[in-house]
Every structure is written in structure tokens, then in C-alpha cells.
Design brief:
heterodimer, A: mainly alpha, Four Helix Bundle (Hemerythrin (Met), subunit A), 18 helices, B: mainly alpha, Cytochrome Bc1 Complex, Chain D, domain 2, 3 domains, three-stranded antiparallel β-sheet, 12 helices, Cyt_c-like_dom (chain B)
């Protein structure tokens, strides 16, 4: 850690001075082991899940790549989405949450045993889920709830244990106030538990399109009430910590929190605009989609104002650029989502590849980048082992340029698809016109995939062991 | 102090938890329950057969819904696919077992065409088998996966087996392709996908609305090439060459190039099967288009066929089509003679 480096040279904010409410407690070896294990699993699922994604992308260009049932598009697509959801992103952000919650509560995690159980249950669920999906066993092809309930119950149990563990940690905190990060992080866990129960319980979604009403609610919030609040909560910790400056406005964070909870919950059915589900549900969803401008503007504004004037520190750090990109993507995809909900624009973009671009910009540009920022900000300081600076830079630029090369052509192509349908051209036109854009998608996807291999290498380089006791821990 | 979100974790997370439960009930659970109670099949619809149900399961397990929608939106651009979908269209779909939830057939992407009325648009089982075995054998530009695992290659197929004959390059070098039970079920399911009429007696207001939609549709530009691409090209191919032994070519076909267009009009209106053309037998079944197309549309597509791919036959008018259509009985008698 004492090695001089070009990028992180003189001023390394985290080690210089502590931020408000962050009494440093020495990180126990147990917590290092648990957190690093979550990160390692997450990195594994990232590589696996995006290898599958890359392969799927190539199938648009070469549909005859293989004719094996287990590798067919319809079976692998849910493997890709579920692995990056429940394997990569969920475990990556939980790793960071398992650090942030005890740290801001100024105590150890309530139970490491429960932490290990959660990790085991979640990974077991993803492994079994992948096998089942490839064998052609799914839960009615309901997006993001494709794992049949006996398999997803394992994940849900892991999630309940995490929520209990974090709640107990917060309840016995050694500070009076509950730091805003913990609002977001524990709320994400609680909301997702309810979400999963509503998604899987029988009784009200048996016949006809009643399941579509639940699907709108679930598929939307599976993203937005799990990943969004969790990574925002993490950013409320890592951004001020790494910049060594308090968050611009605590109250804006609180405003964004409550509006997120009320507005976001109501808008799931905007995935089914013009569908046969009741028209009033669609209209409510569209109205509240506009309401989302409030929490999004409050959140991104807050983060950007915190960064104001600190651009040099961001440029010097190898973790902060990831956070900057994540915050910018958060704003872009959220406003984009509001636009997509309007009936006039939905007409053009719904059912097209524009949606694919949108989902990758949100889960990748926004969520994954914020997680990576946290991982690079935290792990070297826990284990004392830094990743090679060049490799972190390569990860950053390949991932960023990759996701842009991936999504911009899909947005252009998706718009042309919609216009082709509106013009009443024969359907196959909308397939052939996409060919060049699918090639670009494959190019961008390849860059993203290479960056993930580099990330996995960096995680390996940051692994605990040979821990050098440095001034870092005593300094703060 | 007690009522402070920042200091009282029970209060904070209690509100977060129960507030979300409340919101979930009003935006998801209760509306779903209400939709489920209102669930009623359309009077004209038929119950799903056991075989079709099996086919739906194959459709779901193979993830067909990730590229194919089954919902027609009430907007002009979706008119090609049928009338706007109604809740009743899906009313007979329910939870298949305790392990799996009700299938999500509405879909969320249209990488491939909407399948709401595929059974009407493409009723030919032969076409579906070929298309599933290798989509590019019938639609050259298709990017759909092939599903060879729904078929078996055997040396001597039994008498009651469904044999699928593929044109040269797409078939196996040895043996015959036969459809497995899964393929048969899937094709039965696809053939069953047809919109039925909303109800028997439309109210005056609905009728007026339907009339205005029909009037609007009539104003839409009628283009023979587009009609051909949407309705005919999947069998007769966009280059008019057909598929050897299954679907006859349009280019140079004796009926298409005949001076007298009556037979051509009749076949488009009423369909045809089992008639050898210039000594060649064709397996495919031509469906009737009389119900789906107006006289203007039939005339446009016939003229496209008569003047493309080197064909140069006299064109027809909507009046010619109307004459054949209105002479239904006469035509049949002539045909029998």
C-alpha cells in the first residue's frame, strides 16, 4: 500500500482523514474473509453470465452457431439474465453492504455464520437454477422469476438471513443516528423479500392475465427496488468516504428515499402499456413514471454536487471514475425510462431492441459500475493488496466504451425497427435491418466481456493473504 | 425523539416494510385478484385440448416467448396482427402445476413476429415442421434457432409417423426426419392460436366504432408487394421460387401466368391442396385468404404475382375478384365438373 503510484500518488483521500460518522474500527479477519468470498463468487458469476450473454449476442449474427438444446437461445437467455441478477450483481452489492452496515453502525456484523449461510444458499440457488433452465425447466417463462419456486426459495431464504443479519447489526449500533446508507440498504432487502413473496405466492395470479399484473409489478421492481436502492445506499457511503468530504445534502437523500419508495412501486405496469391489463393501472404507472424525476434528480444532483470541485481527486483515484460513470448512467437511464413510458414513445420503442439497450445501460452502466467503484475503493484497503493500476484502467475503459458500443447501436436500430413497423413494412424487414446493429452489439459485448476477465484477475490480485500492516489502518 | 426516523430503527424500518406491503396490495395483489375474478373466456373460444396444452409447455420451456409476443395492441401499427387483444383471449390459460406458474405468453419483445393469430396466418402443419427443423429452409433471412431435438432421424419410419421432408441442403444425408411427440404438440398449439370474435352481438356503438376502423383500414395504402411478403412469401418465397416438393413456385406457374385469371383468383380466395402442377406433387396446403383480405387486397397481391419474377400476365381489378367471390356456387360446380 505504500508503493508510490502515478495515479494514486500523494493524496489518497480515504487514508488522509476520516469522514463524518465513520469512527474506524479495525476490520476483523472474519469480515475480510466473508466479504471477499462474496466478491469472488460475484466475479465468477460475472464472467460466467456475460460469457453466456456474449454467446447469445453472437447467435443474432450466426443463428446456426450450434443446434444443441441446452445451448439454444430460448434456454440460455434466462440463464444470462438470472445469473447476472442473482449471481453477479446481488452478491457483489451484498459484499459491500456487509462492510458498510457494520462500519456505519460502528460494530461488528451481527453474525458471520448467518453471513456464510446466505452466501451458500444464494449460490446453491443460482447453480441449480442454471441447470434447470438449461434443461428446459422454468417458471412459466416469467421474466426474472424463471427459477421454479423450490430453487428460488433457497435464494429468498439467503436474502431473509441477510436482512435479519443487517437489521440486528443496525439495531445494536453504537451511534445514535441510522446513517442514510443503511436506510437504503436494509430497505432494499425488506422490499425485495416482499416482492419475491408477492411474485411467487399463489392464489391471485392463477388464471388468464392476472399473472401479467403481478409480472409488471415484479419485473420492474426486481430491478428498481433491489439494485437501485442498494447501490444508491452504497454510494452514499463510498462517495463521501473516497472523496473525504461529507455528502452535499443529507435531506435530499431522505427525500429521494421516500419518493423512491412511493413512486417506484406504482410504475411496474409501464412494461405493459397498450396490453389488455386494466387501462387505469397503465395510466397510474405512466403518471408515477413522471414522478420518478423527483428521486432521480435529487439523487444524482446530490452525488454530483458532492463531487463538485473534486474532479482532480476523481481523476487521481482508480475507484471514483467508476462511481462517476455509475451516477451519470443512473440519471440517463432513469430519464430514458420515463420517456419510454409515454404512450407516444412507447409505441415506437416497445417490443424493439431499444429495451435491450435500456436494460444494459441500467444494470451495467449504472449498477455494475457503482459496485466496481465500491470494490476497488474497499478491497485493497481491507486486504492490503492493490490490483495493478494498468489493469484497473483497462477494465474501466473497456467496460465503458464496450457498453456504449453495445447500447447506442441498439437504440438506433430499435428506433428503426419501431418506425419500420409503423410504416407497415413486411415484418422480415425489421429483422434484416437490425443485422449491422447486432454486429456492433457483438463488438461492444466482446469488449465488455474482456473487461470482466480483467476484473476477475484484479479480484485475484486483491485477495487476502500476506496482509501488509500499513499506516492505512492506524492513520484513521 | 421516539418519532424520529433517524434514531428509531423500529419506526423507520416498520414504515418501510408495512408501507411497501400496503403499496404492493393496492397496485399489484388486489388488481390481480380483481382481474382473476373477472376472468372469463370469450363465448366463441374453444377449450384448450390436451395436445395443445402439451404444445404450450414446449413453447414455454424452449423460451419462445422471449422473441414472440402474443398481444395485439389497440394501435394502428398492430392491425396487421389482428384485432386488439382482450383479457378474454387469455382466459383459458391457467397454472399448469404446483411447480410452475401460469405461462407468460404475452411476451415482451418482437424479435420474431407476433403469434396471436399464427394459426390463421399459417395453418399448414408441413410449413411449421419445416420451419421448426430449420427456419431458414422456408424463410431465408430468419434468425430463429433450429430445433432439431424436437425431431428424430430414422431409417424406416413407421406408418403412422409424421415424416418431414426437407429440401436437399437442409435435410440429413441419410434417413428420414420424423416429428417427435413434442414437435407434434407444439405444432398443434401453434395451429390453435387464432383470435375468435369478441362476442356474438355487437352493440350499436361498437359497430359504429368497428365501421370507422374498417373505413380507416380501407384508406390505408394497399401494396401488393407488402401483402405478398406478409402472407405468401413464407411458403412461395420472396423470390417466387417456392420450396421444392412442398410449396409450388409462382414464377412461370401455369395458373399465375394464364390469360384467364379466374383460377388464380379462386385459389387465393378458397385455397388449394393435393393438385399436381405440371406433373409435380406438392405436400403443402394452401389456405383460403377470402375471409382475411378485401377484393382490393386480393387484386393487388395477384397483380404483384402476375408481374414479378419474370411473369408477364394480364392484371386484374377488384371487380374481377368480386365477380369470382360472388359466384361462389357457380365456381364450385365448375370445379367439380
Amino acid at each position: 500500500m505504500n508503493k508510490p503510484s502515478a495515479v494514486l500518488s500523494v493524496e489518497r483521500p480515504l487514508t488522509v482523514e476520516k469522514a463524518k460518522a465513520e469512527e474506524r474500527i479495525d476490520t476483523s479477519p472474519e469480515s475480510v474473509r466473508l466479504i471477499f468470498s462474496f466478491i469472488a463468487c460475484s466475479a465468477f458469476w460475472l464472467v460466467f453470465g456475460t460469457l453466456v450473454g456474449e454467446y447469445l449476442g453472437l447467435k443474432f449474427v450466426w443463428p446456426e452457431l450450434d443446434t444443441i438444446s441446452w445451448l439454444s437461445f430460448g434456454r440460455l437467455r434466462p440463464v444470462h439474465t438470472n445469473v447476472v441478477f442473482w449471481g453477479f450483481l446481488s452478491q457483489g452489492m451484498l459484499a459491500l453492504a456487509l462492510y458498510v452496515v457494520p462500519r456505519t453502525s460502528q460494530r461488528e456484523l451481527f453474525s458471520y455464520r448467518l453471513g456464510w449461510s446466505s452466501l451458500g444458499l444464494m449460490n446453491l440457488s443460482v447453480v441449480l437454477g442454471v441447470i434447470a433452465l438449461m434443461a428446459g425447466i422454468n417458471n412459466g417463462a416469467q421474466e426474472y422469476r424463471e427459477f421454479i419456486w423450490p430453487i428460488f426459495a433457497l435464494f429468498a431464504l439467503g436474502l431473509i438471513l441477510v436482512a435479519y443479519n443487517l437489521y440486528k447489526t443496525i439495531a445494536d449500533r453504537n451511534v445514535k443516528e441510522i446513517y442514510i446508507s443503511n436506510w437504503y440498504i436494509l430497505a432494499a432487502c425488506l422490499w425485495t423479500i416482499i416482492l419475491v413473496l408477492v411474485a411467487y405466492l399463489p392464489g391471485y395470479q392463477q388464471d388468464g392475465i392476472s399473472q401479467t399484473v403481478i409480472q409488471g409489478y415484479y419485473m420492474h421492481q426486481g430491478v428498481g427496488q433491489w439494485f437501485t436502492p442498494m447501490v444508491l445506499g452504497l454510494t452514499y457511503y463510498f462517495l463521501p468516504k473516497l472523496l473525504n468530504r461529507p455528502i452535499y445534502s443529507y435531506s435530499l437523500g431522505v427525500l429521494a428515499f421516500w419518493t423512491q419508495m412511493v413512486f417506484y412501486t406504482m410504475i411496474g405496469s409501464h412494461h405493459f402499456v397498450f396490453s389488455p391489463i386494466p387501462w387505469w393501472i397503465q395510466t397510474v404507472a405512466i403518471v408515477f413514471s413522471v414522478g420518478m424525476i423527483v428521486p432521480v434528480t435529487a439523487g444524482t444532483g446530490n452525488f454530483l454536487l458532492t463531487m463538485r470541485g473534486k474532479w482532480r481527486s476523481i481523476a487521481r483515484s482508480y475507484s471514483l471514475p467508476f462511481i462517476l460513470v455509475g451516477v451519470i448512467f443512473y440519471a440517463i437511464v432513469s430519464y430514458q425510462g420515463t420517456l419510454e413510458a409515454f404512450r407516444s414513445l412507447n409505441k415506437v420503442w416497445h417490443f424493439t431492441n431499444f429495451t435491450i439497450a435500456h436494460s444494459h445501460m441500467s444494470l451495467y452502466g449504472f449498477v455494475a459500475f457503482l459496485i466496481w467503484g465500491g470494490v476497488y475503493g474497499l478491497i485493497p484497503r481491507m486486504t492490503g493488496n492493490e490490483p495493478p493500476q494498468f489493469a484497473v484502467g483497462a477494465h474501466f475503459w473497456l467496460a465503458l466504451i464496450g457498453v456504449l458500443v453495445y447500447s447506442i447501436p441498439l437504440m438506433v436500430g430499435g428506433t428503426l425497427q419501431g418506425l419500420s413497423w409503423i410504416a407497415g413494412e413486411s415484418f422480415i424487414e425489421s429483422v434484416t435491418l437490425m443485422q449491422p446493429y447486432w454486429v456492433w452489439r457483438a463488438v461492444g459485448g466482446t469488449m465488455m466481456f474482456i473487461s470482466h476477465l480483467i476484473f476477475a484477475y484484479n479480484v485475484w490480485k486483491m485477495r487476502p493473504g500476506n496482509r501488509i500492516e500499513t499506516a492505512e489502518s492506524t492513520n484513521s | 425523539m421516539k418519532l424520529n426516523f433517524h434514531k428509531n430503527h423500529k419506526l423507520l424500518f416498520g414504515v418501510v416494510f408495512w408501507g411497501f406491503v400496503f403499496l404492493s396490495l393496492i397496485i399489484a395483489v388486489f388488481p390481480a385478484l380483481w382481474v382473476q375474478q373477472e376472468n372469463e373466456p370469450l363465448p366463441a373460444s374453444e377449450p384448450i385440448t390436451e395436445l395443445e396444452r402439451k404444445g404450450m409447455k414446449v413453447f414455454i420451456n424452449e423460451g419462445c416467448v422471449y422473441c414472440h409476443t402474443q398481444q395485439v395492441r389497440p394501435i394502428a401499427m398492430d392491425e396487421n396482427w389482428g384485432r386488439p387483444s382482450a383479457p378474454g383471449d387469455y382466459a383459458r390459460i391457467n397454472r399448469p402445476s404446483v411447480w410452475r406458474q401460469t405461462p407468460a405468453v404475452l411476451g415482451s419483445a418482437r424479435t420474431g413476429p407476433d403469434l396471436t393469430s399464427i394459426g390463421k396466418r399459417q395453418p399448414s402443419a408441413v410449413w411449421h415442421y419445416m420451419h421448426l427443423y430449420n427456419p431458414r429452409s422456408v424463410v431465408k433471412e430468419s434468425i430463429m434457432p433450429s430445433y432439431p431435438w424436437l425431431f428424430k432421424i430414422v431409417e424406416n419410419p413407421s406408418k403412422d409417423a409424421t415424416v418431414v421432408s426437407m429440401p436437399g441442403e437442409y435435410g440429413p444425408s441419410n434417413g428420414k426426419i420424423i416429428a417427435t411427440e413434442k414437435a407434434e404438440a407444439l405444432v398443434a398449439y401453434l395451429q390453435s392460436l387464432k383470435q375468435v370474435s369478441m362476442d356474438a352481438e355487437a352493440s350499436a356503438a361498437q359497430k359504429a366504432k368497428a365501421d370507422s376502423i374498417a373505413a380507416q383500414a380501407a384508406k390505408k395504402k394497399i401494396d401488393g408487394a407488402t401483402i405478398y411478403a406478409n402472407n405468401c412469401a413464407s411458403c412461395h418465397q420472396s423470390d417466387g421460387q417456392g420450396v421444392e416438393g412442398v410449396f409450388p413456385p409462382m414464377a412461370g406457374d401455369p395458373v399465375v401466368t394464364a390469360e384467364d385469371p379466374t383460377d388464380h383468383i379462386r385459389i387465393v380466395l378458397y385455397g388449394l391442396q393435393g393438385v399436381p402442377i405440371e406433373g409435380t406433387e406438392y405436400q403443402g396446403i394452401m389456405q383460403p385468404f377470402g375471409e382475411m383480405m378485401s377484393d382490393e387486397e386480393v387484386a393487388a397481391v395477384i397483380n404483384h404475382e402476375r408481374t414479378s419474377w419474370g411473369n408477364d400476365a394480364p392484371t386484374v381489378t377488384a371487380e374481377d375478384v368480386a365477380k369470382v367471390r360472388n359466384n361462389d356456387e357457380l365456381n364450385k360446380i365448375q370445379a367439380e365438373e
